[in-house]
Amino acid sequence: MGQNHRQEAKACLTAFALLLAFTLPWLGYGLACLPPRFVSTDAAAQPQGKLIALTFDDGPRRETTTVLLDGLKQRGVPATFFLIGEQIPGNEDLLRRMAAEGHQIGIHSYTHQKLTGLNDTDWAAEVDRTRLVIQNAVGPGDYFLRPPYGLTDPAVLRRADRPIILWSVDPEDWAKRNTAATAEHLLSHARDGAILLLHDIYPSSVEAALQVVDELHRQGYYFLTVEQLFAQRGIPLEAGKIYRNAYPASP
Ligand code: NI
Questions:
Q1: DSSP per-residue letters across 180-232
Q2: Quick check: 106 pLDDT over 80?
Q3: 57 C-alpha vs ligand 1 centroid, how far in Å?
Q4: In angstroms, what is the span from residue 107 Cα to ligand 1's centroid?
Q5: Distance from the CA of 25 to the center of ligand 1, in angstroms?
Q6: Most buried pick, 24, 26, 152, 189, via CB within 10 A?
């Protein structure tokens, strides 16, 4: 009886060891095949690197935005677009492309009006209407707000109902309309956690943006959408609050 038990136990252990020997390598293989935790972000490969966000206002404009999207796709770089509502009808495919290619979409306004001092009707016409046309193109989402000219007042903060995203580097590309000068300003002011402001309605700005991506890649930067940038830094984004950068916390 005791002898039988020992033999059974030995046989059982042998079977278990064989089972482990066959399954463990497959388990390891299976784990290695799981998708990475942060998908489709530049920082996934190197979360400790310098992080930066490219943001574009005043689009979409078919000609220039398409060139930009092509260039960003080639480089595997996501950006954030704060859109003008009245420029969306007829360009819905560009919004779908932005969403499909990992870019973040936000609201600038419907007609590029200041959002300060508006009554409820005008606020709805500028902000809610823009949210609606965006949703009609790409579905529901958070759609953060960047008010035209970066102008805010307590009413804008209260009504926004979303985080308000401003910027830390403004090359005034709309005034310069000069690729080299715009790129130079961006490169000399870029730093870890910065939010760069550009306008994808000017060919010179699109060209500057792509040059800057290439140079900052060489300098070890990783590009993220605004949402990814703050998430990566562990900074929660709250409705009605203004955010200008995601600089790393000082040690
Ligand atoms: Ni603007």
A1: HHHHHHHHHH--TTEEEEEETTSHHHHHHHHHHHHHHHHTTEEE--HHHHHHH
A2: yes
A3: 5
A4: 10
A5: 55
A6: 152
